[in-house]
Specification:
Elements lengths: L1 E3 L5 E4 L2 E2 L5 H12 L5 E2 H9 L7 H22 L9 H7 E4 L2 E4 L7 H17 L3 H12 L14 H27 L3 H14 L4 H13 L3 H19 L5 H12 L22
Antiparallel strand pairs: 1-2, 2-3, 4-6, 5-6
Helix pairs in contact: 1-3, 3-4, 5-6, 5-7, 6-7, 7-9, 8-9, 9-10, 9-11, 10-11
């Protein structure tokens, strides 16, 4: 089975899609796919599909959705030929199993783009902490390359999936920040400017991205532009949240004003030997 969550929902068995066209069964499959190999309880599935307005017929309707998914699994198994099983209902129940209090989708971790993303992200983060900025940049870029768009962009999202999607997008942003940090350590500040400007425009209250843009601008000779980024962030934070930038950003602002030598990191020396200024 191949499972794609990082973009439009894609679940294929023997090369055949088992994603239903109807919204609620699609929600159901998406949640089971995100929590693959774990039991998703019936109350959790009901909360996702109906929220607080759970109908009296919810249990029966949920079983109907499960049956619909198993029929698609059966069709995919049958299409796979004799070596993939005859497509009996029992085979489908091995793929989408009934467990005590819920259901579980049988998916190997290596068959899910979400699990692969998380594995690469962990490896990239470890490389960055170990001082290997080049390996970190390459590994984190591979992780980001798995994304085909916003997570589950074609799936109706209820309360439970909403939290899951938010968590995935936050992971994506963190990996992106780490990849940019690795690239800054490799002296790639000039090539990062366009990407960072776009990201800061999209996330005007993200202090990490603002700090990275300030650093890249400073190293590229744009001191006054770096100061402008700080002022724009400060204005946005005060208007939207009524707070000043963090002490970390204020220290970076002072470092830019004073032309602190530590901000001028020559690429030949750009090996990660400890926390960068942006992480202090």
């Amino acid at each position: 089975m191949d499972v794609g969550i990082l973009g439009p929902l894609a679940v294929r068995l023997n090369g055949q899609s088992i994603v239903p066209s109807a919204g609620k069964p699609r929600q159901l499959l998406a949640l089971l796919a995100i929590r693959a190999e774990r039991v998703v309880t019936v109350p959790t599935l009901m909360e996702e599909i109906w929220g607080d307005a759970i109908p009296k017929s919810a249990a029966t309707t949920l079983q109907t959705y499960i049956l619909h998914l198993r029929r698609k699994v059966t069709a995919a198994l049958r299409a796979g030929g004799p070596g993939c099983g005859p497509g009996r209902d029992g085979d489908a129940k091995e793929v989408l199993t009934t467990c005590f209090g819920g259901y579980r989708l049988a998916v190997r971790p290596e068959d899910s783009d979400l699990r692969e993303f998380q594995s690469l992200a962990a490896r990239g983060s470890t490389a960055l902490e170990a001082g290997d900025a080049r390996a970190a940049s390459a590994t984190l870029e591979r992780a980001l390359g798995l994304w085909r768009g916003p997570a589950l962009v074609d799936v109706p999202v209820g309360r439970v999936l909403g939290v899951e999607v938010l968590g995935m997008e936050e992971q994506r942003t963190r990996v992106l920040e780490q990849r940019i940090e690795a690239d800054l350590l490799l002296g790639r500040h000039a090539s990062l400017l366009a990407e960072l400007r776009m990201l800061v425009a999209r996330h005007p209250m993200n202090e990490n991205l603002a700090a990275q843009l300030m650093t890249a601008l400073y190293r590229s000779g744009g001191v006054w532009r770096a100061l402008e980024v700080f002022q724009e962030l400060r204005r946005t934070l005060i208007e939207e949240l009524g707070v000043e930038p963090s002490h970390r950003l204020q220290r970076l602002h002072r470092a830019v004003l004073s032309g602190e030598p530590g901000l001028d990191l020559e690429w030949e020396r750009a090996q990660y030997a400890g926390p960068s200024l942006m992480r202090t």
